Amino acid sequence: MAVISKTVLIGMADRAASQFDLIRIAFATINDVGGGLFYTRSNDTNDSDVGLPLGQPLDNIDKGWDIVTNINSGTPLHELITAMEKHFTKVGETTWDAFLLANDERVSNYFNKIYFSIKEQYLKADNVFSEKDDLLGSGVVSSGPTLDFTDGINYGDGNANNFADGSNFAASQLRIKVVGGAIGGTDLDIDVVGKNEDGDSRTVSVVIPASTAENAFIDVGTSANRFRDIT
User: Fold this and answer.
1) Which of 80, 129, 195, 231 has its CA 20 to 30 A from that of 149?
2) Residue 213 carries which DSSP code?
3) Pairing verdict, β 128-129 and 146-151
């Protein structure tokens, strides 16, 4: 029996991640609706006959919208994890991490949270990309011209044993966002210097064209130019 196509598997993981995202948004909306938490409403009565019997149950309701817990107990999404592991075992593969690493593929951190809901362990950081708009660094162009650089976050030290726990992620292609106004009448040439997925120094030259509008994004290299830190 052949192992599943990586295209098919990644497509499934992407679909599950998209469904997780919609559920996450819905849960956040549900928890915020109605103008105040149940426990707070009970506690604000300053009546022990109300607060004592209702306090803990209402607090449980308010805190019961944890997305990871409910993904496991309230949806079938976690079954994708276990079903695929059975397939891996049958065809001589090992784990999700091993399959992703062997095929140079990464999954969304939303999928990573589905994985955590059933395994109580995150996938390896090298196999997971962040879903946030992370700021790895910023620069202000001044006269000269010069670029005054301010360091931002990074995706970890690249240790292969790191888990994607919220601070460690796979190196990714970056984008530059133009803020503070449009680019002037001359192209802006920038060398983006940092560390790649192997921890080696990488430099990618980027040209931001003249008159580029504020809030426009410029790709840093191609999808093959991945950074986990810029310096």
Assistant:
1) 129
2) P
3) unpaired
Question: d(Cα 115, Cα 113) in Å, to the nearest integer?
Answer: 5
172 pairs with which residues across the strands? 227
For residue 92, give the DSSP letter.
T
Mean pLDDT per 10-residue interval, the chain, length 231 residues: 83 94 88 79 83 84 80 86 88 86 93 93 96 92 81 92 95 93 89 90 93 94 91 84
Q: Strands, DSSP E only, in 26-184?
A: 107-108, 128-129, 137-142, 146-151, 175-177
- CB–CB of 134/152 below 8 Å? yes
Closest by alpha carbon to 229, among 126, 135, 132, 154? Answer: 154
- Which of 118, 120, 122, 220 is CA-nearest to residue 170? 122
CA distances from 21 to 68, 81, 90, 121, 159 (A): 11, 17, 31, 19, 28
| Range 104-118 burial, b when 16+ CB lie within 10 A, else e | eebbbbbbbbbbbbb
Spatial CA neighbour of 97 closest among 32, 13, 186, 188: 13
Q: Tell me, what amino acid is at 216?
A: A
Q: How far is CA 212 from CA 101, 108, 142, 170, in A?
A: 38, 30, 17, 29
Q: Cis peptide leading into 145, omega within 30 of 0?
A: yes
Residue appearing with tokens 């105040």:
36
Residue 206 burial (CB count, 10 A): 17
Do the Cβ atoms of 140 and 148 come closer than 8 Å?
A: yes
Could you tell me the sign of the dihedral formed by the alpha carbons of 159, 115, 26, 108, in that order? positive
